[in-house]
């Protein structure tokens, strides 16, 4: 199955400009062209775009994504380096997750504190009202 650039953009969640940019900087191979000369993206192209999107979401710099994209054309000869790139990125992701979990702990603590304040205040309101009417 092939997809025009607009459909590929929609399916990948990327903009048409981003698809063209990725092609220009060699993150993606130039897609096949249809009989009218328009880009025709394959399911394989979309799978690669999905992987690139995941790499970008992890915070991988474009420079490293370009290296990975270049290496994949070398086949199994580059498997070691590609694995190394992913292992290093995984370590960065795990560090970021740990950092976010620490932030989440702080937020949860503060929220619990405010919830306790609200409960304490709710418990005192009836006493305050009783004092005013007495």
TrEMBL record:
Pfam families linked: MerR_1
Keywords of the record: DNA-binding
Residue ranges of every copy of the HTH merR-type domain listed in the record: 2-71
InterPro entries: DNA-bd_dom_put_sf, MerR-type_HTH_dom, MerR_fam
PANTHER family, per the entry: HTH-TYPE TRANSCRIPTIONAL REGULATOR ADHR, REDOX-CYCLING DRUG-SENSING TRANSCRIPTIONAL ACTIVATOR SOXR
Name of the protein: MerR family transcriptional regulator
Organism, as annotated: Actinophytocola gossypii
